[in-house]
Amino acid sequence: MTPGSLPSVDVPDPRRQAGPPGCAPLPARLGVTAPGPDEPMAVVVAGPAGANRRELIAGLLGIEAATLAVPPGSNLLVQHAATATRAAYVPGYRQPHAYGADPLAAGPALARPPRRVELSLPDPLLRHFAVVDTPDTGTLGVAGGRVLRDAVGRAGALLFVISADQAFSAAELHLLAEVARTRVEVFFAVTPGVTGPAAPGDGTRAQDRAASGTGPGSTRRLDPVSVSIEAHRAALLAAVPALTPARWFPARRAELPQLRRALVGWAADEVLRRGSASPPVPAGAHGRVPVLAGVEPGELADRIDRQARACARRIRQHLALELANIHLRVVQEIVFGVGCAGLPQMLDRELEALSLLATAQCDEAVRGLVDEAAARVFGAPLAEGVRRRITHAVRWGLADHPDAPELDRVLLVTSTAGVAGLTGAGALDALAGLPGAQRDEVLPPVGVALNGGCWQHWRAPGNNDPNAARSWAQRALREVELELSREVSRRFEVIRLSLGAVLADALDHGILLA
């Protein structure tokens, strides 16, 4: 195979195949769901390099832009607190690193860039929502776009910042088209450009000046930002008509209060919407739930066993296919893109997206497994309160399994292309680019990342061999596939045992005991 060429293989995609009964269709993409009622509200700020996103956020918060500086590739989460603090969350550690809030203070010498830096400030705006500044859209790649869409889907709002002399790239239009499919509020802010909007051709300059009121005898002055807003909006709607309701704002300091009021208004409406989306006490949360007559415990246990194994097999197939696609993208980037020095950042972002996808697939499969098995015992449709009671009982039952303490394990790729494990809720929290609400799922999230040794190794001047980098990436991804396969199998084995025990107790006593 020549460099840059990719083999054409006709392999059936298991994500498009119907799953076995009881195993729900698994999500093959990220960021397409509405924000959950318990998710913290946030405004995700995104845009290309040179759009002065940091200056815009600093203007909204009334602080110095240097305070918002973070390592390249890291998310910045700005949230409310009584005192100003800053902390860096680095994969491979259970505790965050202090990261002084003073913009003149040097940050700690980190082995690798953090996934996120949390900056807490006593600003009243942050009482309404947090602000998340993300890496430049031009550096995200395929995986970074998926991670950003997931963050936007959970936060609830996207503020896309672009300057007057920039244009939407194809990748940005694709990102915005994906966001438009979600129930997310989108705002656009246009900052003054360095060179201003491109001048029209000679044949249309006179007509454009006459139409805008800037020709001979006109007293109106051309506003570059206002003109560029109309041009940007027209270009965007030609590609993404679904974003017609999105609001646009000039991002000059004197006009930032308009944007600030619009964001606060969105937050007020979003609080009401999320509060009404989920009742405080769902139906079936209390009281006796009798079992159906004629359910055989042995037959039910066999069915749960078959379905759990089938779900685990499907997820392993999905992840193997996704890892094969990651390998192809990594090889292309090593040879034609970021090179060896950029390999750690690119691969870590791919593994972050893989972790989010694996978590979503496990959660969806477990929900389907619990719903199908419980419906056979208690009847369908299953009330939301009953479902939550069963879910909580299954989660408590996991503690009795010897593998349960290992379920919150982080997989860390090492510089030798191996995979090391690190357990604990703090280790998982350090992997989140945007922390969410307390999980109400049965299983903890899946977490995969690169440790600091990978950054140190591939950024060293002597390690610039593309062939060695390709070989290392292939071995590392193979180890990740093996570890994830074991992890998925172990997770569904403990789910099978815990769910079977909960439903067996219900059949023995004739009612739901949870």
Describe the structure.
This protein is an alpha/beta fold and 514 residues long. Helix content is 45%, strand content 12%. The protein has twelve helices and twelve strands. The protein has helices at 53-61, 141-155, 170-180, 202-212, 224-239, 256-277, 297-336, 343-378, 384-397, 425-429, 452-458, 466-509, and strands at 42-46, 75-80, 85-89, 97-98, 116-121, 130-133, 156-163, 185-191, 247-250, 409-413, 419-423, 447-450. Helix 3 (170-180) links the parallel strand 7 (156-163) and strand 8. Helix 2 (141-155) runs parallel beside helix 3 (170-180) and helix 7 (297-336) runs antiparallel to helix 8. The longest helix is centred in the last third of the chain and has 44 residues, at 466-509. It is globular, with a radius of gyration of 26 Å. The model is unreliable at 1-18 and 196-219 (pLDDT under 50).
Unreliably modeled segments: 1-18, 196-219
Question: Largest sheet, if any?
Answer: 9 strands, mixed
Order of helices and strands: EHEEEEEHEHEHHEHHHHEEHEHH
Instruction: Give the strand tally.
Output: 12
Helical fraction: 40-55%
